[in-house]
Write a structure and sequence with these properties.
about 260 residues, alpha/beta, Rossmann fold, 7-stranded parallel β-sheet, 8 helices, 7 strands, about 50% helix, globular
Amino acid sequence: MKLDGKIALVTGAGRGIGREIALACAAEGADVILAARSVDALVEVAEEIANTGRDAQVIETDVTDRASVESMAGQALDRWGRIDLLVNNSGIAGPSSPSWEVRPDEWDETIAVNLTGVFSCCQVVLPSMIERRSGAIVNIGSVTGKRPLLNRSPYAASKAALIGLTRTMAEEVGPHNVRINLISPGTVEGDRIDWVFEQQAKALGRDADEVRAQFVESTPLRRLVSARDVANAATFLGSDESAGITGADLNVTSGLVMY
């Protein structure tokens, strides 16, 4: 198993991509720390992990609150003594409106969760990884950080910034044998992408099913990405199988973006 005996911390682990990553980590042999604002959702995931024979710790966490992030790391390290893998998955969609109509509070919230939250989680976990000279971090970005998506400027900006953050941090921590990589998922099946299709359809004056079909047809594989596709990439980048990879931006997009 790719993560046998490792301790993985996954933020935004209650649903969607985060849930699939947490379950995949457990399936690959890791005990998993589950962090998010919604404890009820985390408890359900923890029960699923327990059924696989692995252990899970639930920690209520708001990545926009530095004290909450520090508490998360402290609780995790107190229980396990180490964190081998951090997956920064917490994120929000942000507003869907023209750039000139985005409210300042909408911009601030999107950046706070999608960018500053990732930075904070890295900051509180990295010292212990550096001290042990071992660890991996996987940041979850988005293809929207690399190609335009109508009316999504705060989200696009936050995800584009993760590319620079990941590469710079990877350069800094590489000499300490710590790796940091980024996954840029494409259109991932689920409630969030359904909402995006609806918003795009509204802005373009088209039918949501038509917009969805256009997205699918624009990919060489002619399909949307599944959350499991992203989870498989995360467990690979968090494992020793990717020991020679750091600072990478891995596209999981069904070929929608290849750069």
